[in-house]
Amino acid sequence: MDKTVASHGRVDVRDVHIRFHTKGQEFEAVRAANVHVRPGEFVSLIGPSGCGKSTLLNAVAGFLKPSSGQVLLDGQPITGPGSDRGVVFQQYSLFPWMTVRANVEFGLRMKGASASEREAQARTLLGLAGLLSFENHYPDQLSGGMKQRVGIVRALATSPQVLLMDEPFGALDSQTRVVMQEILTNMWQRLRISVLFITHDIDEAVFLSDRIYVMTARPGRIKAELAVPLPRPRTPEMTATPEFAAMVRQIKGLIREESIAAMGGELSDGGLAGLCAEVGPRGVGQLV
Ligand SMILES: Nc1ncnc2c1ncn2[C@@H]1O[C@H](COP(=O)(O)OP(=O)(O)OP(=O)(O)O)[C@@H](O)[C@H]1O
């Protein structure tokens, strides 16, 4: 379990276009996206609401097929969901009638692992997530942060090559969220699994990631690819460094342009400046 160098888990999204057909109309969600996750790398996708982040992640999960282009895992085309990819969503998806440990063991049971294998794997991962003393609790006895930790542990239990996380901390309060980021970065540093992570939170993306892809407003294209210059292991103190602040500022600027574009023609930069003069600086922050 304690891997230092990952040899599998390379994700290649090559020139992917995703179009939906609704009510007889074609709708382009993702255009010509190229995203790569190297084995053991932590990569985030960030962009304005509705730009196609979840759509792209769903293509990697195998929940939907791109209209064109390729999605590969370790060089093999992804044709559907598989146990080589663990998925964590914002909504907790635990079985309420099962204990924490039974939830974690579920995927292993499906794969035919023996009771002793299941128990050993579940207890190792629950220990890493600081949840061992809750193994016999039921989900409704846990806080939101704990439920999401169980969700992550459950996704990791079958030893996937890649962890796909769609706004996993989006439903948590800001303090819990920060603690969850630390727990996740510590677990990732220990396991070195490849991660593709979606977030709206720029600080979160910078703190966790090796690289960040910034997407444009719809149809989602890759606007920028940025390497995070912070060393590993990451510590909370790093969020107070000039490097961290500079990266956050850079991404904020990139997303701001796209958020304005996503809000349509009625808001130009000039129009926004007029609005800011009326509502004061707090109004600007809310728009970004
Ligand atoms: N199955 C679908 N059928 C039709 N349209 C869809 C479908 N799934 C997503 N869309 C549309 O595709 C666009 C991209 O959606 P997606 O959920 O991927 O964006 P997102 O960047 O993850 O958004 P958010 O940050 O708000 O979660 C949206 O306009 C959405 O309404």
Secondary structure blueprint with pairings:
Layout: E1 11-22, E2 25-37, E3 42-46, H1 53-61, E4 68-73, E5 76-77, E6 85-88, H2 100-110, H3 115-128, H4 144-157, E7 162-166, H5 174-191, E8 194-198, H6 202-208, E9 211-215, E10 222-227, H7 242-262, H8 269-279, H9 281-287
Parallel strand pairs: 3-8, 3-9, 6-7, 7-8
Antiparallel strand pairs: 1-2, 1-4, 4-5, 9-10
Helix pairs in contact: 2-3, 2-4, 3-4, 6-7, 8-9
A few lines on this structure:
The protein has 288 residues and is α/β, with parallel strands linked by helices.
Explain this structure to me?
The structure is a single chain. By secondary structure, this protein is of the alpha/beta class. The protein folds into 2 domains: 11-84 and 161-236, P-loop containing nucleotide triphosphate hydrolases (Rossmann fold, 3-Layer(aba) Sandwich), CATH 3.40.50; 97-159, no CATH class. 39% of the residues lie in helices and 22% in strands. It has 9 helices and 10 strands. The chain has helices spanning 53-61, 100-110, 115-128, 144-157, 174-191, 202-208, 242-262, 269-279, 281-287, and strands at residues 11-22, 25-37, 42-46, 68-73, 76-77, 85-88, 162-166, 194-198, 211-215, 222-227. The protein has a 6-stranded mixed β-sheet with strand order 6-7-8-3-9-10, with helices on both faces. Strands 2-1-4-5 form a 4-stranded antiparallel β-sheet, covered by helices on one side. Helix 2 (100-110) crosses helix 3, helix 3 packs across helix 4 (144-157) and helix 8 (269-279) packs across helix 9. It starts with 10 loop residues before the first strand and ends with a helix. Adenosine-5'-triphosphate (ATP) binds at residues 20, 22, 27, 29, 47, 49-55, 218. Residues 20, 22, 27, 29, 47, 49-55, 218 line the site of adenosine-5'-triphosphate (ATP). Residues 13-242 form the ABC transporter domain. GO terms for molecular function: ATP binding. Belongs to the ABC transporter superfamily. This is NitT/TauT family transport system ATP-binding protein.
